[in-house]
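Lecture notes, part 5. Sequence design as translation. It can be helpful to think of inverse folding as translation between two languages: the language of shapes and the language of residues. The source text, in structure tokens, appears below.
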């Protein structure tokens, strides 16, 4: 005798198994984690690229656009180095004076005598006789402005502004006239005749 099989209940779906559900949940979590990581990596990479691009733009000069003004800053020039030549200052030009061709005299007159020009004045006439030494000096650089100086018998005289005619100079002191040339010294006191002294050596500029 055969007994009938008891009726079976509804069959359970294999997707309802706890192990399957756990696996699905784990798979979903892994998928979400992968997508999130990919997004984070993509964002960080794009930030690095943008930062590098802006850095390169700031470090490299931008080409000037049409109509824009470009200011160029010049570097300051360096001073001379040890190898550069040192500039030298030229010495001031020296003033040359004519040298008299008279024994014992230079461009200012007689050395050690009162017949010698003052300060840095130069002589325009130098001469001597057997008794007197005579010099006519120019005042500085004032051409034509002269003075007369003479020495004789231990005495001396200085007379301002003698007149000149050719190589002859005439100075007047009170009533006495002194006329000197390359040939003679003629002294004429007031109310007396001339006293003539022949020149031994004389020079005129």
């Amino acid at each position: 005798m055969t007994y009938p099989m008891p009726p079976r209940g509804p069959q359970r779906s294999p997707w309802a198994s706890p192990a399957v559900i756990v696996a699905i949940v784990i798979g979903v979590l892994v998928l979400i984690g992968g997508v999130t990581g990919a997004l984070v990596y993509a964002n960080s990479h794009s930030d690095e690229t943008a930062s590098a691009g802006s850095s390169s733009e700031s470090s490299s000069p931008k080409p000037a656009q049409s109509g824009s003004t470009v200011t160029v800053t010049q570097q300051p020039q360096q001073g001379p180095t040890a190898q550069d030549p040192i500039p030298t200052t030229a010495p001031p030009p020296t003033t040359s004076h004519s040298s008299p061709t008279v024994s014992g005299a230079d461009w200012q007159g007689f050395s050690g005598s009162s017949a010698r020009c003052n300060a840095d004045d130069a002589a325009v006439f130098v001469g001597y006789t057997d008794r007197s030494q005579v010099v006519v000096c120019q005042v500085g650089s004032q051409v034509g402005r002269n003075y007369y100086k003479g020495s004789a018998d231990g005495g001396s005289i200085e007379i301002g502004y003698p007149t000149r005619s050719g190589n002859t100079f005439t100075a007047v002191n009170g009533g006495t006239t002194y006329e000197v040339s390359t040939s003679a010294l003629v002294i004429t006191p007031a109310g007396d005749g001339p006293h003539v002294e022949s020149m031994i050596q004389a020079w005129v500029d």
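The translated text above is only one of many valid answers, since several sequences can fold into similar shapes. The first strand starts at residue 105 and ends at 106.
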